[in-house]
Structure formats: structure tokens, C-alpha cells
Amino acid sequence: MKIAFVGKGGSGKTTLSSLFIRHLAAARVPVIAIDADINQHLAAALGLDEHADCAPPAMGAQLPLIKEYLRGTNPRIASAETMIKTTPPGAGSRLLRVGDDNPVFDACARTVRLDDGEARLMATGPFTESDLGVACYHSKVGAVELCLNHLVDGREEFIVVDMTAGSDSFASGMFTRFDMTFLVAEPTRKGTAVYRQYKEYARDFGVALRVVGNKVQGPDDLAFLRDEVGEDLLVTFGHSEWVRAMEKGRPPRFDTLEATNRQALRVLHETADAAYASRDWERYTRQMVHFHLKNAESWGNARTGADLAAQVDPAFTLDERSAASRQPA
Questions:
Q1: In degrees rounded to 5, what are phi and psi of residue 315?
Q2: Which of 35, 207, 258, 324 would be a feasible disulfide site paired with 42, CB 3.0-4.6 Å?
Q3: Distance in angstroms (rounded) separating the CA atoms of residues 188 and 55
């Protein structure tokens, strides 16, 4: 299942996504964690040292390798240089699976050992001063979108993406790539403003959205969130001494997380798992093609000098059956 964590900057989405990743790893569920935020903090939240040599390789720096591998023998793609972030797979494309070993994961993923399991961690890479004036962060996130477009995941396989803050997630079609989106909201007017934006944008694309209240300290906070987001409020997290220790770089064992917060993580897991029944691979593929054609017309054709609409394979649907017959590595 592909799961996104979104929310206002400072809402705690990276913290909660890291707790969910730890929960899945403890349940021995295969999980890939992706840091797609402009501020890269997921590695630290999972306990990795913040030194550069401890961070996972930047996906943005591996984009040529990613394109060449995913292209495979797809006859509709003349060269890796003509692939853009929304290029959809077709016959001959190589597809990614969560448990696979392949050149993309070899180059971009790092295994993180957690208390009771492990996760594969990937990251776009930080937006640095050298990027100013010559790049935008969305070009780096494009590596994530391209991988998600070629990734087939089954039940009890999880990809958890810590998205960039606020409504910036809508700068591309990546927000439609998920089975479930958890929007982290504090019990404040600013905290719920992003929810209203996201709800409006997501409505036309059938994006499954649930709100996770964070920093909820009492009945007044809970009542406020219920008034603001209604039935979309799924669960809340309160104060956590475990999280405070984690933020100081001294996390206790994960099984000592407060019982109420452990139960909240179980609710997230059950809700995400239940979304499998609503999976619509044809709609997923159709939305992928929609954003690709939109990007091709607005900038892709001019940038690559190719007719990118021709990359669309009308007979191809990305699903678990297509993964079973995928191009060998």
C-alpha cells in the first residue's frame, strides 16, 4: 500500500510518519520509507546520524540510472533522456516491487535497522544553495514520482512517503499515487487550513484522505478538530515522552511507546490495510496518463524535443498481474 503523510510545516508529519514506519517494521511488514520533503528529517527521525555519510543517496542524483533501468525495452520510449517524471510504464518497462533487489534500490535505498525490524529508506536529497537559480525542488521529487509510477505493491507491502509541507504536494500529480493520505493537523486554525486546501484539491481525483490530529492535549483540542474536519478525523496523538527522547537523539525501545499512541498507530495500519479493497488500478493508470499528457503539452515536449504523448501505451494497465510478467532485471 502506498501511504502519504502530509500537513503544515511543523505539524509533526515527519515524526508521525517515522512512528508508523517503526510500527510496520515491528509488525514485520515489508516497508520502503521515502523522504520527499524539502527539509530532509526522516532519516534522523528513524535514528540515523545526521552526518552526510549516514544519509541515503539522493534519488535526484541517480535520475539517469533510474530512467535507464525503468525504460527497459519499452519501444515507445526512444531514450532515457526523453523520460520525464510522469512517464508511464508500458509493455517492456521494468517495474519495481517492494521486496525486489534491483539497480534502483541498490543505488538509492539504505536499510535502516530498527528495534524489532527494518525498513528501506530512500530520499530525494536536500535542496541546497547550489540549486538556487538553476533548479526547483519539484525536479528532485520527480525521481520519486517516476519510481511510484513504476512500482507495484501488494497487500501488506508498504511504501510510506513523507511529503513536502503544505499544498506544495499538488505541484505535480504525485498526490494521486497513494492508496491513503494521512493529513497531520494540529488543533489550530493554521493546522486545519491545509486540510481544507487538500480536501478541495483531492476531491476531483478520488484521493482517500483521513486526518490525524497531533499535539492534542485535551477535550477542547479534540472538539476543535472534530468541528473543523468532521468525519475525516481518524485518530489523535497526544503528548509523548518517547517522542521527546527521540528528538533528543536518545529514543527508548519502540515497544515502550505510550499505549495510547501505539493504539493510534494500529488504527492507521488497519485503515491503510482496509483501503486495499478500494484499489482501482485502471483509475490509477488513467490518472498517471492524465498528468503525463498535461506535462507533455505544457513543458515536456519542448524540453525533450519529442512527442511525449506517444509514450502512452493504451493497452497497458499497471497492476499486480503486469508485475508478474514484468521485464526481467
A1: -95, 0
A2: 35
A3: 33
- Determine the Cα–Cα distance for residues 109 and 153; give it in Å rounded to an integer: 17
CA neighbor of 8 nearest in space, from 162, 161, 193, 166? 166
The length of the chain in residues reads 329
The span from the CA of 84 to the CA of 238, in Å, is: 42
How many Å apart are CA 243 and CA 245, to the nearest integer? Answer: 5
CA distances from 50 to 8, 53, 160, 212 (A): 23, 8, 20, 27
Burial 14-52 (b: 16+ CB within 10 A, else e): bbbbbbbbbbbbbeebbbbbbbbbbebebbbbbbbeeee
| 272's grid cell | 491503510
What distance in Å separates the CA atoms of residue 211 and residue 301, rounded to the nearest whole number? Answer: 38
pLDDT, tens digit only, all 329 positions of the chain: 999 999 988 899 999 999 999 999 999 999 999 999 888 899 999 988 765 456 788 998 899 999 999 999 999 999 999 999 999 999 999 999 999 999 999 999 999 999 889 999 999 976 554 443 434 444 568 899 999 999 999 888 999 999 987 666 666 788 999 999 999 999 999 889 889 888 888 888 889 999 999 999 999 999 999 999 999 999 999 989 999 999 888 889 999 999 999 999 999 999 999 999 999 999 999 999 999 999 999 999 999 999 999 999 999 999 988 776 555 44
In angstroms, the CA 122 to CA 119 distance is: 10
Domain 2-182+270-316, what fold? Rossmann fold (3.40.50)
C-alpha cell at 106: 541498490
* Domain range annotation of the chain: 2-182+270-316
Q: What are phi and psi of 81, to 5 degrees?
A: -65, -20
